[in-house]
Amino acid sequence: NAYAMCGLATILAHEFVALVINYRTALPLLDLIPSIKSVFLPSVLLCVTFAVLLAENAILFTGWGSQFLFHASVVPGDELSRDQFVPTVIYAEWLINVPILLVLAGKCALGRPMGEIFGPLIWTNVYILLAWAAHFVEDATARWAVIAVSFALYGWVSYDMAQWAVEFHRSAPQAAPTRILRPCLTLALILLFGVYGIVYLVGFLGLITSEQERTFYMSMNIFSKLAMSLAFAGIKTGAYHDMLVGMLVNANLPFVRQVAVADTDGELDNLDELREMLLKHSEQRSGDAAA
């Protein structure tokens, strides 16, 4: 956790400084182009998610607030051959950062309206809460029913998220920048959440210890946010390149007639001969066109 804190602090500082510099650079354009403010939304959300991750690792490192952020499962010991440690702090981090990931993938990358994202966002937090609550249900039948409902909600949310990617791929122009990368972010999140679910079940069945389960969660938490940051760096680069190409295509450039000049040591060399060659070439092309 200490090493993770050092890395996360560096990444957070990089994202924050880049956000401040980009904002100050675009400040004169905010009144002219109000929509430019949406460009900063991914950077703001990434800063928030890295700050939450940093706080989470600090809590795990120091043990601060253990009476509120760490709990013991009430599942009988004879059902699980592992310790009964439940890292509530990780579930709390998911309740904050997973909705941010959905907004990044759906709103910022795919341009879906918030109305489409709000439903999956709410139900995602519901199945995270159910997965956490299952640790404290004493009755085995009720406990596995809660887990089943949680996974059913994951399947429902995953279907809605997949529709975001399908609609974007269907409507986006063929030449749109990062046309493949953007929907892949959403599909990667679906796969990642599924892997989290598999590890959750393996841990619940006692096939791994809670320490191993927690280590996996912490590693994947950091990796997924770092991968999202790198993906948006590529998306912003592609959008910037597309904007430059559009500006060049739409620019009203004056036509300037130029004469090729052979240059040797800064002095004109055989300029008359070069002009004669260009005139002959021009007359030859005119004759070919007339024929």
Protein architecture, described:
With 291 residues, this protein is an all-alpha fold. Helices cover 72% and strands 3% of the residues. It has 9 helices and 4 strands. It has helices at 2-26, 41-62, 66-69, 88-109, 114-133, 140-171, 181-204, 210-250, 271-290, and strands spanning 71-72, 85-86, 263-264, 267-268. Strands 1-2 form a two-stranded antiparallel ribbon. Strand 3 and strand 4 (267-268) form a beta hairpin. The longest helix is centred in the C-terminal third of the chain and has 41 residues, at 210-250. It is globular. Mean pLDDT is 79; it is low at 78-82 and 255-269.
How do the strands and helices of this protein lay out in sequence?
Elements: H1 2-26, H2 41-62, H3 66-69, E1 71-72, E2 85-86, H4 88-109, H5 114-133, H6 140-171, H7 181-204, H8 210-250, E3 263-264, E4 267-268, H9 271-290
Antiparallel strand pairs: 1-2, 3-4
**Outline type:** globular
Helix proportion of residues, in percent? over 70%
> Over the alpha carbons, how many angstroms does the gyration radius reach?
29 Å
Largest sheet: 2 strands, antiparallel
Core attributes:
291 residues; mainly alpha; two-stranded antiparallel ribbon; 9 helices
